[in-house]
Inverse folding.
């Protein structure tokens, strides 16, 4: 099958993924409300944290956590990839696709593309709601667009990791049970919600090496300082590299699963 | 021929049997209990390091952030474990075990009693493990044994509340996928929209208003006092009142849900 011919089923399966999510408010609302609620709890609890010595200069703690909220939103979206793909395997949809003339990778890429679209939408909603509550986005429309694009590619990277797990585990519950703790560790051992300057010891070392710290800080630069093409490009380059690695590995897992059956 | 109604089995015996059945599952699948320990231990280790600087802000009532966050982590672990009783019941409803149970001469309150007993037993694991982890990672317990007892009472009470909530929802929504999000969201909102992360004096806006009226704030005060200083009756009784009311109300919620299912 040519690449062009395999694009159509991928697009259809991506559409299925997005429509399926928006059709059930009980599925997409927690993904949007969860990060917002969590961020507002942190903001309400640690509003004075920006007064700490060494804390980056920000107008308010809310300005600081906008990027973190977007990253958590992407994590929720990536968790859905793991959950949905696990459910596709459990319900037999994956096997039905495998015996049809559709390439096996279409179901994976469709799910990932759906997650990327949803992550972009989620980032936009999160920024809009937090801005309505007083967060300032100094970079304006360009910064919002940069954050949304990076969020979409980051969804591919994290979704690829979730898909890897789902394809190896084959059960939605187990996949989510393994992926959620991993994703939470990745987010909270980074500077997504608290600056690296306020960390020390082994925790600081982990945050220094965590790629999510670099991505969150580049996103924060767009919203707190202003739009900067170099920083945006840096974040985009990082997430593109991560997604290339995780999606390639997930594609290999799909093929292995297909061969094993 | 008229069939005489069989006498109902003793409530205590049925509750114990149902709890033992549920706890056998814990022994058979230990991973389901172990992975529930991740989040509270994560709080103890990661949050206490990541947000440690917050304790340096003027007016923060704890010596370090770990002392402040440990009780939240423990209550979080206990409620997460107790919620499993609701998931198990929802699975039993889907699998048909519940219909067979209702055909037996069993009083509804005995079924809820079984879930409450197993919820308490399940919550004991995170209580012991997370408290130990907190102490190992440097939490201070100046309140001593009395402080630990206050924390244990808070953990047991909150676990019973979580079981009542989860069982009541499972019986009304009759399906695990339908009820699981609501079970977790309800508990998470109650835990986090309180003084779980920061003291009231640090809060701003609506969060402060909500935390002030959230009964969980009193439960956390009860659980936390051993980490902050000596245990006092003034800090204890409001939490006990809240827990007694919560357990009564949510057990009633669960029993009423069961009555809707019985013919």
């Amino acid at each position: 099958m040519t690449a062009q011919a395999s694009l159509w089923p991928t697009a259809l399966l991506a559409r299925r993924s997005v429509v399926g999510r928006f059709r059930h408010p009980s599925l997409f609302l927690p993904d949007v409300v969860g990060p917002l609620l969590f961020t507002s709890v942190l903001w309400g609890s640690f509003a004075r944290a920006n007064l700490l010595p060494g804390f980056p200069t920000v107008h308010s703690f809310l300005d600081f956590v906008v990027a973190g909220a977007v990253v958590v939103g992407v994590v929720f979206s990536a968790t859905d990839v793991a959950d949905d793909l696990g459910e596709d395997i459990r319900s037999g949809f994956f096997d039905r696709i495998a015996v049809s003339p559709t390439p096996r990778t279409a179901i994976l890429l469709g799910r990932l593309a759906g997650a990327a679209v949803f992550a972009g939408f989620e980032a936009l909603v999160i920024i809009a709601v937090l801005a309505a509550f007083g967060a300032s986005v100094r970079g304006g429309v360009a910064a919002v667009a940069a954050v949304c694009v990076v969020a979409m590619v980051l969804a591919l990277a994290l979704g690829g990791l979730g898909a890897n797990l789902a394809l190896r585990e084959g059960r939605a519950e187990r996949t989510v049970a393994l992926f959620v703790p991993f994703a939470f560790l990745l987010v909270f051992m980074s500077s997504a919600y608290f600056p690296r300057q306020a960390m020390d010891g082994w925790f600081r070392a982990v945050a220094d090496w965590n790629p999510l710290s670099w991505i969150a800080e580049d996103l924060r630069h767009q919203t707190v300082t202003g739009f900067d093409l170099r920083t945006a490009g840096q974040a985009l380059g990082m997430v593109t590299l991560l997604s290339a690695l995780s999606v390639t590995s997930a594609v290999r897992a799909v093929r292995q699963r297909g061969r094993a059956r | 021929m008229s069939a005489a109604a069989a006498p109902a089995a003793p409530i205590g015996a049925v509750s114990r049997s149902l709890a033992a059945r549920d706890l056998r599952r814990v022994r058979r699948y230990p991973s389901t209990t172990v992975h529930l320990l991740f989040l509270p231990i994560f709080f103890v280790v990661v949050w206490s390091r990541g947000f440690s600087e917050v304790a340096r802000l003027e007016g923060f009532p704890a010596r370090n952030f770990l002392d402040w966050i440990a009780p939240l982590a423990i209550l979080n672990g206990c409620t997460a474990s107790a919620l499993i009783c609701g998931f198990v019941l929802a699975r039993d409803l889907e699998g048909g075990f519940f219909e067979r149970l209702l055909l037996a001469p069993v009083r509804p309150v005995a079924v809820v009693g079984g879930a409450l007993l197993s919820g308490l037993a399940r919550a004991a694991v995170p209580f012991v493990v997370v408290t130990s982890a907190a102490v190992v990672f440097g939490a201070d317990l100046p309140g001593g044994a009395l402080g630990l007892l206050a924390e244990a009472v808070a953990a047991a009470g909150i676990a019973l509340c979580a079981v009542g909530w989860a069982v009541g929802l499972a019986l009304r929504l009759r399906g695990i996928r339908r009820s699981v999000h609501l079970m977790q969201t309800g508990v998470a909102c109650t835990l986090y929209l309180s003084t779980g992360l920061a003291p009231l004096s640090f809060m701003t806006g609506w969060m402060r208003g909500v935390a002030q009226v959230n009964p969980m704030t009193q439960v956390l005060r009860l659980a936390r006092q051993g980490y902050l200083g000596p245990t006092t009756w003034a800090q204890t009784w409001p939490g006990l009142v809240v827990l007694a009311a919560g357990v009564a109300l949510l057990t009633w919620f669960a029993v009423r849900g069961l009555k809707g299912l019985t013919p």
